[in-house]
Design brief:
- This protein has a domain at about 5-65 and about 90-95.
- About 20% of the residues lie in helices and about 20% in strands.
- The chain has three helices and six strands, in the order βββαααβββ.
- The protein has helices at about 35-45, 50-55, 60-65, and strands spanning about 5, 15, 30-35, 70-75, 85, 95.
- Strand 4 and strand 5 form a beta hairpin.
- The longest helix is centred in the middle third of the chain and has 13 residues, at about 35-45.
- It is flat.
Length: about 100
């Protein structure tokens, strides 16, 4: 199989985990929508529950990592100085179909 991974962009895609040896730590069942997986990963990243993730008043400082971004300075390799800006985490799930 070649390394032909492409992002899954529609969060309504259904996923069925058929590998019985894999740990399903982001989802609690083997079949789910992509949106459920992404939500589970976000909750783990910012250490919050699914209900708190959707509550606009809870964990605002943690949600900055996913929503508005966090104010940072970055020193890029080869740069002459620090650059101020915002850093935001984005979840991308990729799929590589088996070759027929």
């Amino acid at each position: 199989m070649t390394d032909n991974y492409k992002p899954l962009e529609n969060e309504d895609h259904a996923i069925n985990i058929i590998d019985s040896d894999v740990h399903r730590f982001y989802v609690d069942q083997s079949m789910f929508k992509l949106s459920h997986l992404i939500e589970g990963i976000k909750c783990k990243l910012i250490d919050t529950s699914r209900s708190d993730l959707h509550d606009e008043k809870k964990n605002l400082s943690r949600k900055k990592w996913l929503n508005d971004g966090v104010e940072v300075e970055v020193l890029k390799v080869g740069a002459l100085g620090w650059q101020k800006g915002k850093l935001k985490l984005k979840i991308t799930v990729e799929f590589s179909p088996d070759e027929e």
